[in-house]
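Tutorial handout. Part one gives the primary structure; part two gives the three-dimensional structure as tokens.
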Amino acid sequence: KIEKRFWKMLLDTLEDLTEGDFKKFKWFLQQAEILEGFPAVPKSQLENADRLDTVDQILDTYQDHAVEVIIKVFESINRHLWPRNKFCLIFLN
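Part two.
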């Protein structure tokens, strides 16, 4: 089971994204081929979602696999985000 600290860390990470990168993040969650075996989140569930709604949707959809999915999405958005991304630094080590 995912720890509660994950939820806060994910929210903090999404709040650090620019609006453009947050939009890309939500778009990649809708792309099944990027998620490699995990279900895509329907566009209707993310279209008007703010960062809190997006965290809830990720946890509801992916549950124990949320970390794997988030890392796939950040890889897809842009690798230059990785060095300063707290979430990825903690969960990849």
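Part three, for discussion. The helical segments are 4-16, 19-29, 32-35, 43-46, 51-62, 66-77, 86-92. The chain has a mean pLDDT of 84.
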